[in-house]
Write a structure and sequence with these properties.
By secondary structure, this protein is an all-alpha fold. It has two helices and no strands. Helix 1 packs antiparallel against helix 2.
């Protein structure tokens, strides 16, 4: 029977995480300074949406895959243990 490969992090998740990290570094050093809530709505602050969105995509993929795999493996283990008992 085919068992899913247990990878800690996939290639696409790595790309999302690393790109998000470098976007934060670039944006923080170059042109974003937020000193009040009102400054969040300046066009210069809109660049923060890109690394935030990228990081949220990474988290959704990483955590979602963990949840899917854990539920799938628990079901397989239950079926295997039931087969061994009978």
């Amino acid at each position: 029977m085919f068992e899913p490969k247990r990878e800690f992090i996939t290639t696409s998740e790595t790309i999302l995480f690393v790109s998000s990290f470098f976007m934060w570094i670039y944006i923080a050093q170059t042109f974003v300074f937020i000193d009040s809530f009102q400054s969040l709505f300046f066009p210069q602050s809109w660049w923060l949406m890109l690394p935030i969105t990228t990081f949220l995509l990474f988290l959704r993929s990483f955590i979602g895959r963990r949840v899917d795999l854990s539920f799938g493996w628990n079901d397989d283990e239950k079926v295997e243990s039931d087969q061994k008992r009978s």
